[in-house]
Specification:
seven-stranded parallel β-sheet, globular, ATP-binding, six-stranded parallel β-sheet, 803 residues, GIY-YIG endonuclease, primosome, DNA-binding, ATP hydrolysis activity, 22 helices, DNA binding, alpha/beta
Length: 803
DNA sequence: AGCACGCCGACT
DNA sequence: GTCGGCGTGCTC
């Protein structure tokens, strides 16, 4: 009898190896690697979801095998390539196989475990469990259930008064909407209208609506009930009375925006040269990595599109990743316009079901081109001919939780399988990539000119130590405000970058110096004017603004430092006619909020777009002639060796937003460090010089790309526990490293406490440590044991954030 | 995460 | 002697 090796979804994930299960005779045809199965697990025998990893003839397991309970897929959801990719990913990122497999799939295919209790005997009069039964999903035990309720459930279960069952429901994969059909004629509704009690407001409202729908009555027209004021309960009552017929109807979610087909633009000679090199590599099926370094506006996208076209012409597919933030309608329309009907889009704005639909279209081969954010690196395309990573320096390509993968590494790995080239594109490549191009591991392609003779913007650095400042508004120089005013008069648009959201940075008592801090984190709270509250940007804690100092009760408490909200208010006071749009986490958090703001600004419904980093990325507004950076220094002062690189990239990018069409753009950068090289070289738009200078610094400090880095971080509710553990880890790890490896720390993280967890960390810098990876795998396993309960360990290879 | 096994204390 | 506390370790 066949034996399936199954990777199981165990919540605690204490294991990383497959478990063997017997395949019942009638399921052997379906039991192939990559299909999802339900298997009994543990003494309880509760079913869990898993993936068949391999099918073998005989098990090495000495005990009695349990049988596979159910096979969930007719065709594997993960093919051989994906399974191999998962294995590599798990090793490369120190994560569990199961989490890698899950990450590759749309969440609609992930198991959704539910615990539900059923009463066998009536509850006591005031039993707290009654509250759970009264909810709509009667008897469902929520994951975040209060401990005392859970204890009560356990108690009753032991007394035999209730049972708990465990269900695995697949999250809805097919979008279903409740649709109501009229089941009576208009006349019959009229009749009912007469007989219903006069105070049955809801029923009358419904009947009036049904009568008004008369033209539809009698035919099969279905309609969605969206009558204002009508409650869902009334509808279900109406169904019971036979007034209406309800049914679940599958709805296709493809918000098909009308796209006009576009034709390829003629390439400039530089673009043509890059394109020719790339397609040569495609034709020869080489997995070359190209670093396409092109200044903003030099037309990288046109090269991507032509390369993708070349793949399609050869019967292959194309995968293009862009940062989430630049996956705007502008970008999507551009790709869809070029390849109408062939494009699937994957981004976080899609619902679970929409994502699944797009994933299916890709998997079935109905879409040959995929545009998406980070996780689209796992798009189930076959016969990939070209892969593109736009804005390759963006840190959002690195996933911050398990598995901590970098989309770039995934693409490069897949390129080996498909023998196809990868294009990494950026105006300001990451130092890692640029250095690899230097060493010849990547092939460097350059686009140095903007087509249509658009000039590079003129960049001015304003020295805030000497600049005229507007009285009382210490963050705005007179020069910048004059420039804003000038654009306002000319009916041109401006973009302002301020790297801090909220209203004020912190709230301080002028008498005793007390700063109001988050009760859960070691960080001061940020003042938000719109909600009139103090917020913690790390844990989300929110509290009212106190009228007196909590320490000395003085009324003399003030806020310091400017955030987007305050600057918005200040500019509004200075330029009363200006229409200002604010774009930051607070205004874009809701679904579609980001798009809405971009659309509004693009449609000239505002004169000034003021926002955090996100205004710098991927936006293309032709009428913006002024870009202002209010505080270029905030990102510089961070204790992170990448601070200069980030500042340079941000300033260069935001500068590129100015003057893209026929109008010359101007950039003003306010700074207290005007002589800093990152600011100087960004204003000169000189990437090469920055690269040389920064490489020198990295070499001296022994930082990437000269060294590999690994961050090991431990957190615990109690500080002394976290400290003890990190030293214990260091003592264990150090002897396994060579002399050449450098261990920084242990140190407390910059913000030591977040959400009442204390964080301590170690950074290992190394060039070649053959034993390190194995040791870290062991460490992860050791940390899973019960003696280490309460600790969380994080092993992050090439971390983006060192703080 | 569950669930059982097992090794110690306070009771019929 | 045994009932049950929850520390420890396994789950095919």
């Amino acid at each position: 009898m066949a034996v399936a090796q199954v990777i199981i979804d165990i919540p605690a994930q204490q294991t990383n190896r497959p478990f063997d299960y017997e395949v019942p005779e009638n399921l052997t045809a379906l039991a192939v690697p990559g299909v999802r199965v339900l298997v009994p697990f543990g003494r309880s025998g509760h079913l869990r979801q898993g993936f068949i990893w391999r099918v073998v003839d005989k098990s090495d397991f000495a005990g009695q095998l349990k049988p596979v309970a159910r096979i969930l897929d007719l065709d594997p959801v993960l093919n051989q390539e994906m399974l191999a990719l998962a294995k590599w990913l798990a090793q490369d990122t120190f994560s569990f196989l199961i989490s890698c497999l899950q990450t590759m799939l749309p969440s609609a295919l992930r198991a959704n475990y539910q615990r539900r209790f059923h009463l066998l005997a009536p509850l006591a009069a005031n039993d707290p469990l009654q509250a759970l039964l009264d909810r709509e999903d009667s008897g469902l035990i929520p994951d975040n259930i209060a401990a005392d309720l859970l204890a009560e459930i356990k108690r009753l279960e032991q007394k035999g008064q209730l049972t708990i069952d465990y269900q695995i429901s697949q999250k809805t994969k097919i979008k279903q909407e409740k649709v109501f059909k009229t089941s009576l004629t208009s006349d019959q509704y009229q009749g009912l209208r007469q007989s219903v009690r006069a105070n049955a407001k809801q029923q009358l409202l419904l009947l009036d609506f049904l009568i008004a729908q008369a033209p539809f009555v009698g035919n099969s027209a279905t309609w969605l009930v969206k009558v204002p004021g009508l409650k869902a309960a009334t509808l279900s009552q109406a169904v019971k009375k036979g007034w209406l017929a309800a049914e679940e109807k599958e709805v296709y979610r493809q918000p098909l925006t009308e796209v006009t087909a576009t034709t390829p633009k003629k390439l400039t000679s530089e673009q043509q040269a890059a394109f020719t090199t790339i397609i040569k590599s495609m034709d020869q099926a080489e997995h070359t990595t190209f670093l396409l370094e092109g200044v903003t506006g030099s037309g990288k996208t046109e090269v991507y599109l032509d390369a993708m076209q070349h793949a399609l012409a050869a019967g292959q597919t194309a995968l293009m990743l862009v940062p989430e933030i630049s996956l705007t309608p502008q970008m999507v329309e551009r790709v869809q316009g070029r390849f109408p009907g062939q494009v699937a889009v994957l981004h976080s704005g899609l619902s679970v079901g929409e994502r699944y639909d797009e994933w299916r279209r890709i998997e079935r081969g109905e879409a040959q081109v995929v545009v998406g954010a980070r996780s689209a690196a796992f798009a189930p395309l076959k016969k990939i001919g070209i892969m593109i990573l736009d804005e390759e320096h963006e840190s959002s390509y690195k996933q911050e939780d398990m598995p901590r993968y970098h989309a770039r590494d995934v693409l490069l790995k897949r390129a080996e399988t498909y023998h196809c080239p990868v294009i990494l594109g950026s105006a300001t490549p990451s130092l890692e990539s640029r250095a690899r191009a230097q060493k010849g591991r990547y092939q460097l392609l350059r686009l140095t000119k903007r087509p249509n003779t658009i000039q590079m913007p003129q960049v001015n650095v304003i020295d805030m130590r000497q600049a005229d400042k507007i009285a009382g508004k210490s963050d705005l120089s007179k020069q910048l405000v004059d420039q804003l005013n000038l654009r306002l008069e000319r009916h041109e648009q401006s973009v302002l970058l301020l790297n801090r959201r909220g209203y004020a940075n912190f709230v301080l008592c002028r008498d005793c110096g007390h700063v109001i801090k988050c009760p859960n984190c070691d960080i001061s709270l940020t003042l938000h004017r719109d909600t009139n509250s103090l917020k913690c940007h790390y844990c989300g804690h929110q509290e009212a603004i106190p009228s007196a100092c909590p320490q000395c009760h003085s009324q003399n408490i003030r806020s310091y430092g400017s955030g987007t909200q305050k600057v918005e208010q200040e500019i509004q006071e200075l330029l009363p006619t200006a229409r200002i749009l604010r774009m930051d986490v607070d205004t874009t958090a809701r679904k579609g909020g980001h798009e809405r703001i971009i659309k509004q600004f693009g449609a000239h419904q505002a004169d000034i777009l003021l926002g955090t980093q996100m205004v710098a990325k991927g936006l293309d507004f032709p009428d913006v002639t002024l870009v202002g950076v209010i505080n270029a220094d905030t990102s510089l002062s961070l204790p992170d060796f990448r601070a200069s690189e980030r500042t340079f990239q941000l300033l260069t990018q935001v500068s590129g937003r100015a003057g893209r069409a026929d109008k010359q753009g101007e950039v003003f950068i306010q700074t207290y460090n005007p002589e800093n090289y990152a600011i100087q070289l960004a204003s000169a738009q000189n990437y090469e010089a920055f690269y040389q200078k920064e490489m020198g610094i990295r070499h001296q400090g022994g930082y990437p790309p000269y060294y590999y880095t690994i961050l090991i971080s431990v957190n615990h509710r109690q500080e002394d526990q976290a400290v003890q553990k990190i030293y214990q880890i260091q003592n264990w790890l150090q002897p396994q490293l060579s002399e050449a490896a450098v261990v920084l720390g242990p140190t407390a993280r910059m913000i030591t406490r977040i959400n009442n967890q204390y964080y301590y960390q170690l950074i290992i810098k190394y060039k070649s440590e053959p034993r390190l990876l194995k040791a870290l795998q062991t460490l992860i396993m050791k940390m899973q044991s019960k003696t280490n309960r309460g600790f969380q360990l994080r092993v992050d290879r090439e971390p983006m954030q060192f703080m």
